[in-house]
Design brief:
438 residues, mainly alpha, 2 domains, two-stranded antiparallel ribbon, two-stranded antiparallel sheet, 17 helices, 4 strands, 70% helix, globular
Amino acid sequence: MAENQAQRLLAGLRSALAEVPLLGWLLGMVAAVIVEYLVGAPLARALGLGRVPLLFGVDLLFKSPLLVPSALAYMVLVYALPVGSVALVTRPLANRAAEKLMVLSPVVSVVVHVAVFYVGLHSWALLNDYRVLVVKLTLLAVMLTLSLNLVNGYMGEFSCSHPGFMALGAYTSSVLTVVAFVGSERFGPPLLPSALGPFLFPLALIAGGLVASLGALTVAIPSFRTRGDYLAIISLAFMLVVKSLIENLEVVGGARGFMGQPDWAGLTTVFVWAVACVAMINSFVRSTMGKALNAVRDGEGAAEAMTVDTRRTKMVTFLFAAFWAGVAGGLYAHVMRYVNPGGFGLQKLAELLAMVYLGGLNSVVGSAAGGVGFMLFSEALRPLEIYKWIIIPVLLILVMIFRPTGLIAFREFDMVSLVRPKGAPTRRRGVPHVAAQD
């Protein structure tokens, strides 16, 4: 009898949770952050942690494994219970609000949901500087994973040039901001008032992306005339050439690196660019060009027979991917406020490939999951120091053996469907579909 009652309670709880819209979960996220601000520190001390866990206890996994049970208890009390409770309590209100937003405009609904998510994320990160840095780097990882997935996943090629594109974007935007707004001993006084810098900073990032796209032409023009593994070979050579070129350019610091970038890549700035990257790449892969790209991947000869301009499709995709890698590189340079050519070599390539193939090919959701999951896993392995770079390649090998397409592969991402209230009618290809009534 007791077992049946427990099963019925669990079934009822699952049913109730299934009716919670995304807005309800986001409100629960904000509530959990408030709880952490109010009772996080004393609760952490009571559980023997000493301080609030930095990354959901992931940072303690190898550093202090004996504290992991206490960290799990902290996560349940501070995050799981508030999120679930608020989501259940606000379920009717959240559904009504989501329905009104959808009636007003799907675009407005998406913007409101993203804004609420950002409020929770920003508030959670501001608890300490380490969280802010990790969130910024994770958002950049998502951008890089998405852009590389365009080539290695949606296009079906194997490119190794992304660290080179990232380096071109990083150094281009860094030189522009330092020369124009900061000044240095090497470049002299700034050319423009520094007060204009934050407003013109996006132009520097776009310039970095365009330079990366120009660099991509040097890879695309020769490699797309060939077949097989030539793109991998040429792109790897391109990455090494860019790294070697920067190491020998004393005007940008050579092997010592380049520093002095202004602190304009705040969390809000990085978040806005990451959202723009996800939205534009998702629109690209769902567009006619994206469908043509899938056709090229599945069979280039068949795609050409169906009048798809395969060369143009591959060229546009490669340059588009390189642009976002360059933008991410520019943001990375201004987040760290220092860049070194050694940071854009084989180790960075291994990280990017691990994120892409861990998350899943041909999937915007998989790329996001791969970027976030890899960053958390990397932070967990940080105490192991050099052994970290033994474990990560082994992980990549295991994923390629047992899950070659990744964890979340070939899945479309539709934000409008996510923000729709539970039980609301959906529309496919112009035909309304109403949920069945009992």
